[in-house]
């Protein structure tokens, strides 16, 4: 089992999130991913354990139950590693005809950046052979450092061996063969961005945390996870209106249902105060992206919302106004075929399933 990669086959994508487990089974049908089945199990934010893989017996039992109910057929699975627990960085290394020399240079950079010994980590290094020149559409392969040496970029992703062992344990107990572990970041890019070369900011609004990913030419140059999510909205509603947490969650569901029925629901004022810190984090992330290097980068051209909280479509207009950038609701089913009658149901659950869809797509595209 590698941290990335594998052969094309029918496959499950499993996302263990703070809001529950999301499972998708896809198969390769005439070169395109086709939906076989899906399932999800919800849990309230703050439930213990905070990380589902810390309870391998209980989580594996729940996963087996979901698989039985959804009538899955594949025993191959790709698991998602949370953004907050994974190291990710793009570094510049001297170009060499020998890839191993570039890998070694990238590992040397990783040693400086990662605050734990590398023998406690599993690293994945991808050499970015062609770098798009930021000021035009020209492709260059011979960028140079100050001494004139040609340079290339490398995407380094790392996860602790101890965390990987927990995922291996859960899937083994569930009777599954782990084909690959992949970061949520790459799964989201695959499901929501695909081959689009635009500079895109993905905002993955989960129950407890929000992942912020800025992708340029398909490469995640900025990856951050901030401590705010759907639970913050729920708490704000609860505190402001004097409701308990369950009542506040029901209010969010009522708003979502009203939107699905076609009603024009504006963003309640109480939501704006809860979302203000996230807007600040998004603006900071964009500043990080445009301010790095020598400024020779493209600014964010569009924003894609996903995650459970992103199911509130009124947020699309809100972030468009606050950021001054066109914002869209992500559609993880855009490159997946499925029975026609499923579209309404898939539209409703889509924001929550972007990671699991992207994970399964790794093996079937």
UniProtKB/TrEMBL annotation:
Coiled-coil segments: none
Segments traversing the membrane: none
Signal peptide boundaries: none
Alphabetical list of InterPro entries matching this protein: ATPase_NBD, FtsA/MreB, PilM
NCBIfam families: pilM
Record's protein name: SHS2 domain-containing protein
